[in-house]
Description:
By secondary structure, chain A is an alpha+beta fold. Chain A contains five helices and five strands, in the order E-E-H-E-E-E-H-H-H-H.
Amino acid sequence: MSIKVEIGFKLNGVARRVSVPADLSALRMLREELALTGTKYGCGEGECGACTILVDGATVNSCLMFAADCDGRDVVTIEGLAASKRGERLREAFVKHGAVQCGFCTPGFVVQATHLLEKLPHASSAEIQRGIEGNLCRCTGYRKIVEAIADAAQTVK
Amino acid sequence: MGATDEVVAQQSLIGQRIPKMDAPDKTNGRTRYIDDIDVPGQLHARILRSTQVHAKIRSIDTSAARALAGVHAVITAQDVPWQRPIGVAKDHLPLKTDRVRSLRDEVAAVAADTAEIAAAALKLIKVDYEPLPILSDPLEALKPGAPLIHPEPHGADGSAQLKPGGPVAFTGKPDNVAMTFDYAQGDVVAGEAESDMVVEDTFRLHYVTHCCMGVSGVIADFDPKGNLLLYSNTQVPFLHKREFAELLGIDPGRIRIIQPPIGGGFGSKLDIYPFEPIVIFLAQITKRPIKLMFTREEEFIASPTRQPVLLKLRSGCKRDGTLTFRSVETLHDNGAYTSWGATTPFVMMQTISSLYRVPHCLYHTKAVYTNNPYAGSFRGYGNLQATFAVEAHMDKLADAIAMDPLDFRLKNAQDPGEVTPQGMQFKTCGLKQCLTTAATRSDYQRKRHENASRWNDGNPIKRGVGIASMLHVGGGAKIYPSDGCGTILKIDDFAHVTLITGASEIGQGSETVLAQLVCEELGLPLSAVTVVNNDTDITPWDVGVHASRTTFIAGNSAIGAARLAKTKILAAAAGKSGLAAEELDLKGGHVVRQTNGERVLELGKFIRSLHFTDKAQLVMTSFYYEPPSKHQDKQFKGDVSAAYAWASQVCEVEVDTDTGIVRLLKVTGAHDVGRVLNRLGIEGQIEGGVVMGQGYALTENLMVEGGITRNPNFRDYKLVTAPEIPEMDISFIETMDGEGPQGAKGVGEAPAICIAAAVANAIYNATGTRIYAAPFTPENVYRALSGAAEPPTWTAA
């Protein structure tokens, strides 16, 4: 079908070389080529945040990024956050505060929150709310997600 | 709540903040939803949907699609003459034969090596349509000479005639009326005659849709013997087994449904939809497993909606504040096919007849066919719409007789022990406590007076408070002939419990609360329980996740199994310890003396010691069916639930009268939940429901024009985002229901129900303008405030 390109990048701390179709999204590369299904398809249009990943430390909607553009970058997915202390604290806080219901949006929120606390380690509730504005959740009403992130901010200090 | 609860709570799991058992996996991406599952050898399916809102299908040419490399099958209705109508009224063929009736309609489907090839093949299918007149307004649908959506009987094989012995088919509807409900109690004419005040208004409620974060999908896989394995997101696996078996003409026992973790339900997965049979057909024809996933746009266009309702309400009261009568007509936009949405009047009439005490009631309702998206079930099931109108009139009548709206509600509120004229029995009822708690904690009465005094103060930014209450089923619902759930509970050699339940987890936390109830009986920590709940070959029967019933019905069933196990263990322990079984209890992983908690035997060790005895078998089975009560008769008189949930919510809003922007500042809710079982879980249900209600009231609007959905994406269909959520103050009124598991009642739907009604009352309190049509988007509010919006009118037939 489409032309393939060979790319090299760091994925969750490990160097990877893969050959991907030029028109493939980073989301589909992660899910379909690399079997990292923690990153979710929610809309494919960058509106819901379920596919959020970290690229060179910044959050990106992976559905809107070409896989080929991962070349030379440092990519971290929800699976890779296990290695980081902040990721672990966040995940524990999400569990403890009941920030998870159906859980489909949760990986995206955890990745986004990791980035948020990286930038604003002492984020206020209002800053947290602004910081997760791009992630949609239909179950929780967001309050417990905000509480979880605020708690993680406290414990990582 | 109160002091005694505190003391008990120290030893008990009940009322604690218990994290969800599935949350650790969900936070680290390990949970595999249906989109994350691939079956070896699977093909990918895509569905061709109609490009016409209403048209006859002249011909379909699939030859180019079939010729595309990588395509394994292209099917249309002609390829599956054995297909049968599906859905609540069996008026819906999965693949359309002679005509399409809405833009979502399935015309053809492709199975291919990849989803891309399948999508490319769809573009090669040529369909020749002959357009028919479009019916997009339910009022037009009732006019004489209106185009008919289901004009004649249609055979399932596409022929116009019903062949004797041929496939089941729909008989057609000559008047576009899909379903009607009529209910009456007392004599509304007499009620009106004794009224001092009568008000009448027409309300219009809009389209919204579920927006589950996980899109719809299914995988169908036949084994060589013809048994079907379906990976499905259904909320009703056992009912679907039967439906799919009918569809395939096979024994239901040959269908196994596995439910992977579900990315949101909210009622959307309560019916069978065309994509499921279509994928099954493709699997039959290709003899390969078939996977189908929707795109988000497809999810917006082709999954169900909450039904738009036009509602005319006439209500009266006496000068002393006693309600006298209510007369209601509703018109429901059914869309092109009949799903559960058509049956929501069943719930609406409960609110109309019994939320407050009304001696005389009359209720007529029609669901009519149009070429619009069809309406399914959605959290609250008609109750948001009914409550919206009823609670607007509670405020209007109170104003008309110059009575405080809180006092007016309290005067007409139900009490425990009451049997309503409809026949609903309120064994527990915390409505009055809900009202006073929500009003007191929000300072409702003072703020209401203060806000109303500022209508003409020249400040464009206004504040308002509004109150609304709700009544909903809280102890199962007798929608089907039976409302039961089975449990199998086994305890292994190490005192680890496997709880096998028919009840599905859809994110609401049923798995955790059921485990908690079992642990409470057996004196074990939550870590000692594994829950199996998603495979119909293993789990016992359950009617499904709906009607806020799971904690109540499945909870009672699980408790029953745990109690059987406890009785058996204690009887065996009595023999071993020399104490009577009645003197023993289970606590902290031990058999203990009931009086002082003194440890007698370590449970795991004791169970191991039972090997090779007739007492070793610790596999218990139990079931729970709703307790006997008077079933509703054909006139809808009778009881529908073993218990009823109540709530009152006060919404505080800020209205910018220059822009029409309404901000929801605070929701103060008081919920009669029977008893709090898992505080973390119940808070999550209520907060999520409140914000879903906020979306219904303020931001969400599926814009359907001429049968076309104009905003099938999250950019234009606005869900509430994190910065917009209100402050939430939630109180629990614990009425300890005698039939409920540990006293609890259902809560899943309740929190979403009052918000739009309370916000409407709050906007009135802020501005002096009452808005009769939702949602309260800036444009709609601005138009209403500047007198540019006519209130809805409707002269019912």
